[in-house]
Amino acid sequence: MMIRYIWIIFVVIFFLFSLYHFYRATKSISRASNVSAVKTINGLPLGIHEFIESFNSYIDILNKENRTINIVTGLAYLSASATALISYFLS
Q: Angle 2-24/48-90 helices, nearest 10 degrees?
């Protein structure tokens, strides 16, 4: 009978992990603001605007990948929780 309690513990833990990853999938890194007071120093362009655009595109890629990874991980934990629940009923 002790094994049934262990399966219930696994169900709860895996379900909580899946909720955490689904929550993390809704969060993202904020983009850098593109406001630059100084565009040149001694007539030489700083290139800050181009850097910020490139950096923001990198942040967009990271946000998309992190969202996908967290959703897949959440689904994996949800399936582990369902498997533990089935094992609970079979034991």
A: 160
